[in-house]
Specification:
Strand content: 5-15%
Helix content: 40-55%
Number of helices: 16
Largest sheet: 5 strands, parallel
Distance between the termini: 86 Å
Number of strands: 8
Structural class: alpha/beta
């Protein structure tokens, strides 16, 4: 009896499973989109995040402190010619900067924060060259070199890298260290920046310690960069620490991307356009403000209104304005429930009112 009951139970489970799959496949797909999410103001979200209770602080501190036992090994690997690449979940900024400030005190250290939106690698390389020169200027070997040397800021990147590679001396003790927080950061992801960093890492008088957080970071480098120039020695050092500093420079996913900055950018773009183009934009804006819960302004309606107000003479002229708007992401398109193409402005009502006020002055 027990065996029969078990078989019936398994049969019932299988039947219900396939029935659910059939019903799920035949049902209509949801019309909801990510764009329909009610986003909050960025500042409000950041304030709420700042009030969150930081959990497991003791355990995290103990974990990070445990890595300090490896500092001597890390220094040894650097002196063997490897670059150190720290990876793992959590911000590693505090960890590698603590390593630099406690274990690399014999060397001059320059920190590059890759999470910033822009970085001038030429200035960084000049700073490295100047620090190395401070270490070497007391050596008599460099007297002839110093007489003919040009200021570092006037030299090319190739000349600076040649100096850091040190063909003029061979003391084996003069180094400058480059610490790169987020070597896969937005300001360093381009090919040119990575190639310069690789060349810096390969210099005979530079040491490099870097952290990475993006899962696709290795795609930034070719085989030569990984094994010859950077010569990475990978260390898995998850810290589980929040990305507080790194996250300041990125708008949260669930927040508006800074309405004040968006309005300012849109205003600059619109003011560069013709008065007719601005008025076409205002037609869409007025419709959106009058119908805040609507799906947008149908394209046919926009053409009719613009023709009546003598803003455009043909559909071609209107399309030219719309192309300009879409290229600058001032206006986007979506289909309403009737299948019509509708135009909408990706701004909140308050931000849109501010924008209209600015371009009307």
């Amino acid at each position: 009896m027990e065996s029969n009951e078990l078989e019936e139970e398994e049969f019932g489970f299988s039947r219900n499973y396939f029935l659910a799959k059939e019903l799920g496949g035949s049902s209509k797909k949801s019309a909801r989109k990510a764009s329909d999410i009610n986003l909050v103001d960025e500042q409000e979200l950041r304030e709420a995040y700042a009030k969150l209770e930081f959990k497991h602080e003791k355990e995290i501190n103990n974990l990070v402190n445990s890595y300090r036992k490896s500092y001597a090994e890390w220094v040894f690997m650097l002196r063997c010619g490897f670059g150190l690449l720290m990876y793992g979940f959590g911000s590693k900024k505090g960890l590698i900067e603590d390593f630099a400030s406690t274990a690399l005190t014999d060397y001059s250290v320059v920190v590059i924060n890759g999470y910033l939106q822009s970085i001038n690698l030429k200035q960084v390389t000049v700073a490295l060259a100047e620090l190395l020169m401070e270490q070497l200027k007391t050596q008599r070997k460099l007297e002839n070199y110093l007489k003919n040397q040009q200021p570092f800021h006037t030299q090319s990147m190739d000349d600076l890298i040649s100096f850091l590679d040190g063909p003029h001396w061979d003391d084996g003790e003069s180094f400058v260290c480059v610490v790169v927080n987020n070597i896969d950061g937005p300001a360093l992801r381009d090919s040119e920046s990575q190639q310069y960093l690789a060349r810096l890492a390969a210099c005979s008088h530079t040491l490099m310690v870097a952290s990475t957080d993006h899962v696709n970071a290795p795609l930034l480098w070719n085989k030569k960069m990984v094994h010859t120039e950077f010569n990475w020695y990978w260390y898995h050092v998850p810290t589980y620490a929040p990305y507080k500093v790194e996250g300041i420079f990125f708008p949260p996913i669930l927040a508006h991307s800074g309405s004040a900055q968006t309005v300012k950018t849109a205003s600059i773009v619109l003011q560069s356009l013709t008065p007719n183009a601005q008025n076409v934009f205002k037609v869409v804006a007025d419709h959106q403000l009058a119908n805040p819960d609507g799906e947008g302004m149908p394209l046919n309606n926009l053409y009719t209104v613009c023709r009546e107000r003598f803003l455009v003479s043909s559909q071609i002229t209107l399309n030219a304005h719309l192309t300009e708007f879409k290229d600058h992401e001032l206006v986007k398109t979506r289909r309403n429930s009737d299948g019509e193409d509708c135009l909408y402005i990706p701004l909140s009502s308050d931000a849109l009112q501010k924008l209209i006020h600015e371009i009307s002055q």
